[in-house]
Amino acid sequence: MIHTTPRLRIRPLSIGDAADFFAYRSDPEVTKFQSYHSSTLEDAQLLIRSMEGRAFGKKGEWLQLAILHLADKKVVGDLGIKPEGYDERVVEVGVTLSKAYQGQGIAKEAMGAVIQSLFQQHGVHRVLCYIDVENAPSLAMFESMGFRREGLTIQSFCNKGVWRDEYLYAVLSSEWKQ
Predict the structure, then answer these.
(1) Which domains does the chain have, with CATH numbers?
(2) Residue 55 — very low, low, confident or very high, per pLDDT cuts 50/70/90?
(3) What is the reported pTM?
């Protein structure tokens, strides 16, 4: 699964991305609302190696895609997609972006390209995401993309030893606007 936008190339992670991936995934501010945090470069390499050869579509299995900034020639984030175990036409998504590249519309640009592909080329019916109730930038981004808040889960996600509340957001293929 490869996508190109005016500023970005979204593609599978490769071992050559490990240093860039580690740089932002080891930043506590970047991973504040996420369970995965790279403690060492070796952690990053292990995660990337676990993704090698993985293709999108296996129920219940995450695929992490690199977000490559074309002008800067570096990986500045990653985007996760996971067909749900009960139906591969329902896909969960998530995104992580280096602090230096936040607030520039990059996550939205990357997410938009991937969601468009999920709906048009992969026959996905529904895309959803869970967002920590305190993650205001992500909440705003998904709302601006037409996602609807469908619910609140109470202490449903244990993040770094603390039970967190999350909102469930979703958009249907029939609601998606390019």
Answers:
(1) 3-175 (3.40.630.30)
(2) confident
(3) 0.93
